[in-house]
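Anyone able to model this chain together with adenosine-5'-triphosphate?
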Amino acid sequence: MIEVRELTKRYGSTLALDRLSFQARPGRVTGFLGPNGAGKSTTLRVIVGLHHATSGVALVNGRRYADISRPLHAVGALLDTGAVHPGRTAFDQLACLARSHRIGSARITTLLEQVGLRDVAHKRVGGFSLGMRQRLGIAAALLGDPGVVLLDEPVNGLDAEGIRWVRDLMRTLASQGRTVLLSSHVMSEMALIADHVLIIGRGRLIAETSMEGLARRFRRDVLVRSPRRHELGRILRAAGASVAFEPQGALAVTGADPATIGDLAAGHHIPIHELTPRGATLEDIYLDMTGQAADHRAGGGGSR
Ligand SMILES: Nc1ncnc2c1ncn2[C@@H]1O[C@H](COP(=O)(O)OP(=O)(O)OP(=O)(O)O)[C@@H](O)[C@H]1O
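re: yes, here you go
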């Protein structure tokens, strides 16, 4: 469990986090989404004690990171894939981390296999692609078998197969009861990976919802095609829905969901040829939400 309460972080005159509060619960994959500069990395860094908050707290299983006695076993984090020693092999990179926590080489071998780096375990990291470094970073995060996993932009540099691999791995970790928090600035990546999403903009929480809920909330209308559209239109209006006729003879219905429309039509023996819920794409929703946050800030004047 991760709990962030009223977290504020200033870097000089930059307000990176502005009384940010949220929880990431065990057993699910939580996406931490926001445009570049929204404050995602700063939040993750504060959670693992790399940066100090100006005010507020970040707790892992009810404790501040500094108060956790064997942190690698409690929290695993991938924060910066560039932070590797290029002259070291993948195995040595993990061995250096493992030593301080008395983790044996068998665990390293298992993890390198799990992340698909077994064949390059003894190659220097300097020659690794970004995707390979991401895999190594994920292995490092999992070294201590932690209950909480934080990954900053873990699919950055991965191809479609790599993204699927991260998704499957994260789902497995969550199904084992772990807390998984992944950041990304790309909605389409999150839509594939996360069950639940926290959207931040300018250091503030804009929305917290399930992926499904997000899509549902922004569903616009239902497109209905029927050879008896006028009759159906009257019935739907009588039931309280709003109905507009579209150019090609379809009905655009708001105020009734597909099940209600289908049931009403069936009750009157009216055939239905199409019933399609329409909404903004997740990408549109996200850009809209984060854009509004930016506008609000720009127009708000002096809220910093
Ligand atoms: N060490 C630092 N010194 C000064 N300003 C910083 C520092 N780290 C982050 N910032 C600023 O804080 C704000 C939040 O940055 P942060 O890196 O947390 O955002 P992010 O959502 O992770 O974006 P990105 O995906 O681009 O890393 C930005 O305005 C950034 O310029």
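Residues 219-279 form a domain with the Alpha-Beta Plaits fold (CATH 3.30.70).
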